[in-house]
Amino acid sequence: MTAKPIPKVRLQAQAKAGEIIEIKTLIAHEMESGQRKDVSGQIIPRKIINRFIAAFNGKPVFEAEWHPAISANPYQSFFFKAVESGEFTFTWKDDDGSEYVTVNKLTVA
Amino acid sequence: MDFMSIEHSRRETLRLAGLAGLALIVTSSGAQATPDEVSAAIAKLYGEKKPESGKIKLDVPEIAENGLVVPVNVEVESPMTDADYVKAVHIFAEGNPLPNVVSYKFTPACGKAAASARMRLAQTQNIICLAEMSNGSLYKASASVKVTIGGCGG
């Protein structure tokens, strides 16, 4: 893929204290498994996003280690218990060393 | 097709075709992960520790038409407090070229030990889910998925 993967995150902007919210994330990425062969029979080298990390106010909350069995354009959802207002940082780490980062605010009423 | 020229009854021809198909499955399965490889991957993480059953709700489709995108949803029963929470969840596929699918790390801040993703499945197979609790106990669950079109290319 030539274009830089663009992450998408869906979560509510406001929550009540103690509410458990669902966070849905999606990132455009081919997730080349390293199992496929090209027309000449050569194995296409593996290039996947191998890690997804969600942190809230700098503290890690949830982490996923992805293997080649994760589908292209990987989707990941998980939950978070809202306690205080703050900022999420979502990081996707690519096999080639690139990192894709996005930030979302959450206001707790 | 040489054997077609020999006078077989229709039944015989079908039987031979069936055998050929079976041979194909047997030879192609050589490149796949096996239940043993999944066990080895689990042993690498947790040694000889025996997992208990229960607590895990592993939600996968019974039939997946497209092996490229199979939803996998897991939820582990836990109060998710600092004293008692789910530390990690691992998902394995017994019939894929590689046994690992995904590993999650949860914290009490999650409020709920649940996550959804989408995986590739090469063929009809069992999915194994392992959960590690904060007190060190292990739980295991499995589910089978029928795959119509495999999703690992090749």
Automatic annotation (TrEMBL), chain A:
SUPFAM superfamilies: E set domains. Signal peptide: none annotated. Residues 10-100 form the Sulphur oxidation protein SoxZ domain. Pfam families: SoxZ (PF08770). InterPro entries: Ig-like_fold, Ig_E-set, SoxZ, SoxZ_dom. NCBIfam families: SoxZ_true. This is Thiosulfate oxidation carrier complex protein SoxZ.
Automatic annotation (TrEMBL), chain B:
It comes from the Bacteria. PROSITE patterns: TAT (PS51318). Residues 43-152 form the Ig-like SoxY domain. InterPro entries: SoxY, SoxY_sf, Sulphur_oxidation_SoxY, TAT_signal. NCBIfam families: SoxY_true_GGCGG. This is Thiosulfate oxidation carrier protein SoxY. It comes from Bradyrhizobium neotropicale.
